[in-house]
Amino acid sequence: MDPSASESVKEKRSRHTVDPLAPEFLPLPPFEQCFPNSTKEFREAVHEPTGTVIHVPFRRVHLSGEEPYLDIYDTSGPQNISPQIGLPKIRKEWIEKREGNGDQRLTQMFYAKKGIITEEMLFCALRENLDAEFVRSEVARGRAIIPSNKKHLELEPMIVGRNFLVKVNANIGNSAVLSSIEDEVQKLQWATMWGADTVMDLSTGRHIHETREWILRNSSVPVGTVPIYQALEKVDGIAENLTWEVFRETLIEQAEQGVDYFTIHAGVLLRYVPLTAKRMTGIVSRGGSIHAKWCLAYHKENFAYEHWDDILDICNQYDISLSIGDGLRPGSIYDANDAAQFAELATQGELTRRAWEKDVQVMNEGPGHIPMHKIPENMEKQLDWCNEAPFYTLGPLTTDIAPGYDHITSAIGAANIGALGTALLCYVTPKEHLGLPNRDDVKAGVIAYKIAAHAADLAKRHPYAQAWDDALSKARFEFRWKDQFALSLDPTTAQEFHDESLPAEGAKVAHFCSMCGPKFCSMKITEDVRKYAEEHGYGDAEEAIKHGMDAMSAEFLAAKKTVSGEQWGETGGEIYIPKHHVAEGKNTLAP
Ligand code: SF4
Question: Per residue in 67-94, pLDDT tens?
């Protein structure tokens, strides 16, 4: 065989799954390796109305000496289970009991409005250290959602809302160019290992149904999709051939598989499309552009808008949350906050209120590319026009000048809008605008967004957020290097960076690192000052510093010397240049 031909077969195999019914899954580094000194633990509770026992996961970080452990919210899901088998179906019993009641609707909002606390609500309350009744009331009000399709039995429920921890979504999914089920399942596992709270399967191209099936059966976090992508594949990529029937059939197919939330761009109305004509970057949302093209081709209203009630009737039978898409979001700083964007947002508000009437849980998608000074207006209008339904934003990217670093340009915007109340932050990876992200890009995106989300939690003064910072700061100040690594969002990277210059085991107890070195380590100096205070019987370090400074000052004055050792009158050691050295009219020594 021609060696180049064999190479091309190999290459093809690495790009595309050979058998979608039996993918060749690859192992990932295990939990213990990713999080040294951490264990997975479970908090047990009884759901009183049904007597069901639920087990809520969290990560326990064990610290050295007498330091107490720290429990952290955990999204990593059950470990060491072959993807071929799939995750345990923890919600099976919950759903069976509920379905036996013959309830008219099956959504969390339906039960919340009736005053019923479901197993999912209790699960979320324990995860967030909050009262279950508070969770129920927020869901009933529409201010929070628990995306949880009754067919996604592997789900560990989580809540999205402005009064809860800020959450992070990771987009995965293959494309027509790269379609490997193995890679996408790995990205799911990798994203949730590092903290993704939800994932969206944005697959296009081949094996869409099978890819989604493997993802759902291996996902302990809610899975969202954009059903119009698959509907378009069904009509060979020709937007004009889309019909409500094809779309409806796709919604039901995905609902049956267990998709927890649908992004539907029902707010892209025919009359809004001309508003994008003068934009720098037009319509950048894939879903938005498909609907816009269809609307223009037939000069008809968006079929998703026209059939909104039919969509709601599907969603409230499965408990699928709606993520009302922002198909007209700006795709550049130039287009930020324009008329098209806000026209669609107003329609999102109308669609939200209609969904609530049918007990469907809703969140609103938001931009996009927005400079920092224009971010608050987005949050204010969404709160006002969409009645405080959770806001779910893509970034926003705060500048367009850094392809390759858009996880950073967007995490800046995400932290900003998160602090203002956005509940779910859709990550952006370094590959944004450039290519399909790989596993490493997924991790970089998730970590950047965990930082943004946590920074927002701190700014919102979430009651438990700062405990994590305080534990890490204390470990850092006390030179407990291994504790500092263990408490990091990404312990392995933190340790690798430290060990790059000081790899010896002894350096893990050293009172400095290679950044400033032993003589200039400010934390070591502070430690010495505190020790000095203790040894000399001063109440605190401040008193010791003052006493030490007074003593030095007296010494300098007696010797008629400056702090840098020169006799009075000499130059070079003074903080301010003596007046007679400054040329007339100048305030520098430059000629
Ligand atoms: S050497 Fe500098 S960076 Fe390193 S621990 Fe000390 S103060 Fe911190």
Answer: 999 999 999 999 999 999 999 999 999 9
